[in-house]
Structure formats: structure tokens, C-alpha cells
């Protein structure tokens, strides 16, 4: 059982498809169902195959009748009748596997069968329809690609123009390059000085902070030592209290000494706390100094931007001044041109007035000449009408003589045909007469020979008795 990869069309569908997609003009109008179904006509089928190959592969009609160049044949005249069929089979054998038909044979061209022909045409028409559909899609894609390519080229051109404009904006004009260089150098020098000052202040602050930190650490160490000493003294005091058996005066003196030592310790503690607070204030001031340095840096950046803006403004001012100078020069030149043009206009107007007078005179002359030419043309037209009538009369006479000549030619042809028929009939009668004469001559000769033989026999018989007597 055969597997079909395409639908099999009905005879009417095949005929309509061939008329619309394959054949054109009189070929499509003259195609009928009996040309392909029942007993297919070879010339019609070969024509359909050739038109399909022309449509699909763009093969010209003369290629079917040309001998291949790569084939060496002694007598190519032998293949004159078979060459178109052979070329058609070769091309169809290349086309039909594309249409999913793999059993095409030379017999399908020389002696086609209806069922196989219907199957072949169904596959071919299905492929032609699919080809037309995909061709439309491909053409749309090609059109979209062309538009996209044009758009891409336009965008590239716009991008190049923008890059050129950006490069033009980024490049400094030659007349302002020296000034811009000086400004950039001065800005760099200022930035260098600010950086050096900032670094110097930062290093000094860092040194002061490290020194203060060392002092704070030393004072805290001393404070801790004093605290330890006070603790040890309190312990010794407690121990001594229990051991004291001294006089109250010594005890009072000792207490006063202890009070003085406590006052000293408190005083030293207050000094240490004051130093600590001053150092802490310095440490707290450090971020504000850093912020101030950052503010100075931002101010320097703003100053640089302002310098650049000032340079651009100065360049714009110079451009505007140059433009104004050039505009004033142009205005002066335009005024001088205007005066000269006014003089030219007055001169041209005077010349135009003289030329108009000349043109008016020439128009009058032309009108007069036109009237004379029209009169002459009317006379010529009358003469032409008379000549035309004569020519028409002569033409009619020529037509009549032509008709007479054609009638005479027809009569002469008829007479010649009659003479030819009479000649042929006379020739046939003469041949019959010749044949009858030949027959009579032959019969006369035979009878003459018989008579001569009889006479000879009679003479012999007459001579024989006389001799014996």
C-alpha cells in the first residue's frame, strides 16, 4: 500500500489548477479534461511538464531540443526526434523526488497511464502551491530585511553624525587651546597646593592626636597607680588604726598629713580629668576638621567647574563678538551690493523697456507675417484638397486594377488547373493509346510471324512435290 505525503486531487481540481498556475492564455483555455484523463495526449502532457519545469527551474524551451555539450555522439541527427523526450525525462526525474515521487519512469512520458499521471500531477501541483506560498513568505521576509537594513544604515549614519558632533564638542578650538591649557595648569597647581596643605594639616593633626593619646595613656596609668596607692594606704591605715597606741597629737598630725595627701591626690585627679576632657575635645574636633577639609575640596572642585564654565562663557562671548563683527562686515557688504543691485535694476529696467518696444514691433511683424502665411496655407490647403481628390481617384483606380489583376490571377490559376487536368487526362489517354498500340503491334507482329511461318510451311509443301516430279 502506497503512503501519500500529499492529497490526490480530482480531475476538475487538476484542470483548474493547471489553468491558473501552470498554463497561460490560449493554452489554458484550450485545455480540456479529455486531454489528460482516459487516454492522455502526449503533446499536451509534454507541454504541461515543460511549463512546470519552466516555472520551477526557469528552463528555457530551447534547452529541451539542445544536445548536451559533454556528450560526444557521432551522428546527432539520429537523436532529433528522441532528444526532447530524453531531456524532459532527465529534468522530470530531477523534479519529482522533490515532490515526494520516486517511481517516475521513461514509460510515463512515452506511454502514460491515467492513474499514474493523476498521481504525478497531484504531487507536482501540491509542490507548486507550497512553493508559491513559501515564495510569498520569502519575499515578505526579504522586504522586511531590506527595510530593516535601510533603517540600520540610517541609524548607523545618525550614530556617526552624533559621534562626529560629540567629538566636535569635546575638541577645544585652536584659538582657545592655549587659554584652556593655562587654566588647566593653574587648576592643577591649585589642586596640588591644596592637597599639600591638606596633607600637612592632616599629618600635624595626626601627630597632635597621637601625642594627646600618649599623654592620656600616661595620665590614666598614673591615675591607676595613685588608685592602687590609695587602696594600699587605706589598708595600711586600717592596720595602723588597730595598732596605734600613740598619742593623740601624733595621730592628729598623721591625719592632717593624710588629709594633705588626699587633697594633693584630688588636685592631681582634677588636673588629669581636665587634661582628659581637653584631649577628648580635640579628638571630637578632628571629624569636623576632616569635614572642613572635604568642604574645601568640594569648593575647589566647584571652583574648577566655575573656571571651566568661565572659559566656555568667554569662548562663547568671543564667538558672539566675532559673529557680530562678521555680521557687521556682511551688512556693509550687503548694503554696497544693494546699491549696486539698485543701479543694475534701473539699468535693466531701461534695457527691458527698450527690449519690450523691440518685442512689440517684432510681434506686429510676426502677426503680419502670420496673416500672409495663413493666406498662403489656405491656398496650399485648397490645392492639397484638389490633389488629394485626384490621389484618391487614382488610388481607387489602382484598387480596381488590383482587384482585376487578382481576378485575372485567379482565372489564370483556374485555367492553369484546368489545363493541368486536361494535360493529365490527355497524358493518361496517350499512355493508354501507347499501351494499346504496343499491344496491337505485339499482336500484329505475333500474327505476322505466324503468317510468315504458315507461308513458309506452304512454300515448303509446294516446293517438295515439284522437286519429286
Automatic annotation (TrEMBL):
Where is it chiefly localized? nucleus
Record key words, sorted: Cell cycle, Cell division, Centromere, Chromosome, Coiled coil, Kinetochore, Mitosis, Nucleus
Q: Which InterPro entries match?
A: Kinetochore_Nuf2_N, Nuf2_N_sf
The identity of this protein, by name, is Kinetochore protein Nuf2 isoform X1
Coiled-coil zones: 138-172, 216-282, 310-411
Record localization: Chromosome, Centromere, Kinetochore; Nucleus
Originating species: Pipra filicauda (Wire-tailed manakin)
- Gene Ontology molecular function terms on file: protein-containing complex binding
**Cellular component terms per the entry's GO annotation:** Ndc80 complex; nucleus
User: Start and end of every Kinetochore protein Nuf2 N-terminal domain?
Assistant: 4-145
Amino acid at each position: 500500500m502506497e503512503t501519500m505525503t500529499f492529497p490526490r486531487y480530482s480531475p476538475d481540481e487538476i484542470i483548474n489548477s493547471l489553468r491558473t498556475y501552470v498554463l497561460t492564455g490560449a493554452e489554458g483555455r484550450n485545455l480540456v479534461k479529455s486531454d489528460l484523463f482516459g487516454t492522455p495526449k502526449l503533446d499536451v502532457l509534454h507541454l504541461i511538464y515543460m511549463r512546470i519545469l519552466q516555472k520551477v527551474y526557469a528552463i528555457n524551451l530551447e534547452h529541451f531540443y539542445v544536445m548536451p555539450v559533454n556528450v560526444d555522439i557521432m551522428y546527432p541527427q539520429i537523436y532529433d526526434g528522441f532528444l526532447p523526450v530524453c531531456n524532459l525525462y532527465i529534468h522530470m526525474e530531477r523534479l519529482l523526488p522533490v515532490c515526494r515521487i520516486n517511481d517516475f519512469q521513461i514509460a510515463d512520458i512515452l506511454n502514460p497511464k491515467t492513474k499514474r499521471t493523476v498521481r504525478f500531477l497531484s504531487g507536482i501541483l501540491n509542490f507548486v502551491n507550497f512553493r508559491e506560498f513559501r515564495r510569498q513568505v520569502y519575499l515578505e521576509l526579504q522586504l522586511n530585511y531590506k527595510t530593516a537594513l535601510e533603517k540600520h544604515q540610517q541609524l548607523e549614519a545618525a550614530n556617526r553624525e552624533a559621534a562626529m558632533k560629540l567629538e566636535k564638542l569635546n575638541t577645544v578650538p585652536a584659538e582657545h587651546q592655549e587659554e584652556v591649557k593655562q587654566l588647566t595648569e593653574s587648576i592643577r597647581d591649585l589642586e596640588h597646593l591644596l592637597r599639600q596643605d591638606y596633607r600637612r594639616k592632616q599629618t600635624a593633626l595626626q601627630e597632635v592626636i597621637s601625642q594627646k593619646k600618649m599623654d592620656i595613656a600616661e595620665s590614666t596609668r598614673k591615675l591607676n597607680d595613685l588608685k592602687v596607692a590609695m587602696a594600699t594606704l587605706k589598708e595600711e591605715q586600717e592596720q595602723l588604726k588597730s595598732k596605734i597606741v600613740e598619742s593623740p597629737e601624733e595621730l592628729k598630725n598623721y591625719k592632717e598629713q593624710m588629709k594633705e595627701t588626699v587633697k594633693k591626690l584630688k588636685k592631681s585627679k582634677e588636673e588629669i580629668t581636665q587634661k582628659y576632657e581637653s584631649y577628648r575635645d580635640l579628638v571630637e574636633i578632628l571629624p569636623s576638621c576632616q569635614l572642613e577639609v572635604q568642604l574645601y575640596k568640594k569648593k575647589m572642585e566647584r571652583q574648577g567647574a566655575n573656571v571651566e564654565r568661565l572659559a566656555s562663557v568667554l569662548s562663547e562671548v568671543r564667538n558672539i563678538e566675532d559673529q557680530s563683527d562678521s555680521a557687521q562686515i556682511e551688512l556693509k557688504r550687503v548694503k554696497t551690493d544693494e546699491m549696486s543691485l539698485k543701479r543694475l535694476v534701473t539699468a535693466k529696467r531701461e534695457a527691458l523697456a527698450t527690449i519690450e518696444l523691440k518685442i512689440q514691433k517684432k510681434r506686429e511683424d510676426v502677426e503680419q507675417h502670420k496673416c500672409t502665411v495663413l493666406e498662403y496655407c489656405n491656398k496650399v490647403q485648397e490645392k492639397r484638397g484638389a490633389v488629394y481628390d485626384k490621389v484618391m481617384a487614382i488610388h481607387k483606380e489602382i484598387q480596381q486594377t488590383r482587384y482585376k489583376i487578382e481576378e485575372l490571377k485567379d482565372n489564370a490559376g483556374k485555367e492553369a488547373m484546368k489545363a493541368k487536368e486536361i494535360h493529365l487526362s490527355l497524358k493518361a489517354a496517350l499512355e493508354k493509346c501507347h499501351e494499346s498500340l504496343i499491344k496491337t503491334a505485339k499482336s500484329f507482329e505475333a500474327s505476322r510471324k505466324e503468317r510468315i511461318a504458315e507461308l513458309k510451311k506452304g512454300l515448303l509443301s509446294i516446293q517438295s512435290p515439284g522437286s519429286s516430279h
